[in-house]
């Protein structure tokens, strides 16, 4: 079924996608009945009406056609309050919500996870403009003039002698000259394989969380025999606490476009699609501007870029859900194989990479003729041999110098904390790597270095390397309930362990908090095992990790919530 729908979507192509039409229709004319508009779209795209309504009803920011008095309804609100984990830990949501409610009326205020303003917290959105920090003090002005500039400020630091991701791009034309040089030099399939060997040699691994080797991914797309292929940039950075992709798209968009251009050249793809989440309006604007600048250079007729704006669904960060979303299908996770490089967008071979992965390519391919000083050599010499190169870390408002730090892979976590000036408040743990990443108690911090291996060996996960400080005041039982609630909200519903398990987990913890029903150790273990082992993707499969970390390291705090205060022992990571 989904294959057929992909083929139907392919007929219209990337320039006319059902998904973008849904987004545009929803934001625009409210005079025509929404159901009629969607029925017309179903006809235009030769899809069943249920497919179109089913897809539209999935997204937070699309009208689901239900009454606007429905409390769950979250589309087309005047203002949104960020309820991501970082703003939760900073305890800023209550005040912001209260002030927005007063200004706009509570029915006109929605919620969003998350705006990527985690360095400052107190984050909110008005009419597609994001604000944070002290901006709330100007609410009266912002409510009338939402395009007023935000006072946002965050630190961007780099500990490398030669910055990779944070390097400034001073001359755009000169920057793309590397593409011209390489495309002339590596102009046969054999030579392209040689260039891919260099990428493999650099050790670059995907920065979206799973750490898959990028050179191997690109080669598996190159060897597919198909004249239609795609490069997709996954800019759906939905992990609360992460804002490094936002930074790259807002401040270094040409680095990302360059990486996609090279991926196109090395795989035979002619279209690059950037799927950018709607929560990042400035990133969308800056990337559009960068694409215009790229086009003005007239470098190639062989590659074009297209931006697809998301509509509020965390699961669209999972690559197969993301591809279905672009096609206008309900963004539900697909079973792999086939992998996207075999059958991806519209059923065609597709490379999906994270923003930061693409952002590393220019450095790696620089200076290739000088083996000693080439980008490849310098990149692979950073890190521990398995995790190479540099990593951008997002440090939230719990750090004195909150913001971004680019460090070499292998850097001790304690050094990062020192560089960040220490903590701005009393913390008991760090939540690293997004909602599916581990919760690291302060006692374990000195064991960790910033690389995939160190985190995995110690029972945590580097993920996309966002770091949220969990304050002493945060009750861990509440934090677990928050993680289950998030998963229940964002589950795509494809598999039961996640769809039902996350709701059951949320209920269990809410009942324990209210005192209605104490936690049963055996039942909880069963639930976490079922989700971990039985879920199709890393949303349901991953959320048990931070919960197990908390159960293991904060046993004493949680004990009173269990039946007869039974020991939590046996619940291990
Ligand atoms: C629930 C879930 C959410 C994800 N969110 C993102 C995301 O926001 N950005 C991202 O690049 N990868 C995300 N991923 C990983 C992607 O599926 C995919 O592995 C990645 O985009 C591949 O790019 P990379 O090899 O450059 O890391 C997510 C995965 C899961 C299971
Ligand atoms: S684990 Fe959750 S999000 Fe992933 S496929 Fe299953 S239901 Fe969907």
Protein model, in words:
The protein is globular and about 70 Å long. α13 links the parallel β7 and β8. A six-stranded mixed sheet has the order 5-11-10-14-12-13. Strands 2-1-3-4 form a four-stranded mixed sheet, with helices on one face. The protein contains 25 helices and 14 strands. Among the domains are: 75 residues, Glutaredoxin (3-Layer(aba) Sandwich); 210 residues, NADH-ubiquinone oxidoreductase 51kDa subunit (Rossmann fold), CATH 3.40.50; 97 residues, NADH-ubiquinone oxidoreductase 51kDa subunit, iron-sulphur binding domain (de novo design (two linked rop proteins), Up-down Bundle). With 573 residues, it is an alpha/beta fold. The site of iron/sulfur cluster has 15 residues, from α21 and α23.
Walk across the major sheet and give the strand order: 5-11-10-14-12-13
| Beginning-to-end CA distance, first to last residue | 38 Å
Instruction: Quote the beta fraction.
Output: 5-15%
Percent in helix: 40-55%
- Bound chemical compounds: flavin mononucleotide, iron/sulfur cluster
Radius of gyration, taken over Cα atoms and rounded to an integer in Å = 23 Å
**Averaged pLDDT:** 94
């Amino acid at each position: 079924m989904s294959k057929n729908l992909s083929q139907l979507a392919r007929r219209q192509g990337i320039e006319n996608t059902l998904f973008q039409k849904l987004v545009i229709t929803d934001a625009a004319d409210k005079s025509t009945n929404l159901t009629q508009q969607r029925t017309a779209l179903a006809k235009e795209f030769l899809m069943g009406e249920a497919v179109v309504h089913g897809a539209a009803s999935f997204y937070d920011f699309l009208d689901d056609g239900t009454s606007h008095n429905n409390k769950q309804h979250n589309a087309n609100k005047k203002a949104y309050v960020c309820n991501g984990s970082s703003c939760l830990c900073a305890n800023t949501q209550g005040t912001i919500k209260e002030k927005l409610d007063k200004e706009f009326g509570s029915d006109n205020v929605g919620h969003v996870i998350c705006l990527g303003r985690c360095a400052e917290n107190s984050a909110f959105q008005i009419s597609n403009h994001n604000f944070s920090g002290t901006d709330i003090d100007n609410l009266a002005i912002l409510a009338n003039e939402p395009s007023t500039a935000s006072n946002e400020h965050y630190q961007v630091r780099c500990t490398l002698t030669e910055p990779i991701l944070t390097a400034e791009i001073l001359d755009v034309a000169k920057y793309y000259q590397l593409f011209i040089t390489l495309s002339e030099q590596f102009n046969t399939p054999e030579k392209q394989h040689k260039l891919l060997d260099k990428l493999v040699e650099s050790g670059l691994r995907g920065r979206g969380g799973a750490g898959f080797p990028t050179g191997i991914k690109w080669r598996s797309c190159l060897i597919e025999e198909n004249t239609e292929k795609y490069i997709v940039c996954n800019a759906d950075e939905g992990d609360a606490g992460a804002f490094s992709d936002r930074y790259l798209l807002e401040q270094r968009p040409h680095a990302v476009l360059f990486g996609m251009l090279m991926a196109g050249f090395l795989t035979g793809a002619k279209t690059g699609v950037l799927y950018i989440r709607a929560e990042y309006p400035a990133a969308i604007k800056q990337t559009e501007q960068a694409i215009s600048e790229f086009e003005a250079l007239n470098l190639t007729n062989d590659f074009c870029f297209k931006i697809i704006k998301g509509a509020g669904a965390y699961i669209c960060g999972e690559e197969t859900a993301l591809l279905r979303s672009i096609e206008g299908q309900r963004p539900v996770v697909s079973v792999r194989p086939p992998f996207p490089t075999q059958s991806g967008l519209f059923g065609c071979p597709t490379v999906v990479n994270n923003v930061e992965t693409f952002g590393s390519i220019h450095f790696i391919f620089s200076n290739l003729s000088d083996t000693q000083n080439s980008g490849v050599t310098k990149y692979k010499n950073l890190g521990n041999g398995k995790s190479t190169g540099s990593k951008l870390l997002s440090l939230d408002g719990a750090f004195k110098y909150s913001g971004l730090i680019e460090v070499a892979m292998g850097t001790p976590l304690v050094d990062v904390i020192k560089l960040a000036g220490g903590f701005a408040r009393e913390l008991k743990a760090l939540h690293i790597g997004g909602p599916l990443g581990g919760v690291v108690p302060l006692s374990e911090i000195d064991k960790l270095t910033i690389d995939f291996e160190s985190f995995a060996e110690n029972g945590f996960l580097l993920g996309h390397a966002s770091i949220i400080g969990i304050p002493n005041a945060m009750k861990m039982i509440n934090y677990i309930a928050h993680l289950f609630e998030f998963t229940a909200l964002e589950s795509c519903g494809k598999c039961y362990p996640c769809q039902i398990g996350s709701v059951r987990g949320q209920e269990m913890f809410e009942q324990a908090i209210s005192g209605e029903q104490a936690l049963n150790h055996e039942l909880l273990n069963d639930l976490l095992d079922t989700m971990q082992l039985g879920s199709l993707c890393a949303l349901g499969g991953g959320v048990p990790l931070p919960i197990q970390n908390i159960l293991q390291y904060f046993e004493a705090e949680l004990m009173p919530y269990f039946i007869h205060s039974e020991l939590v022992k046996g619940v291990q990571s």
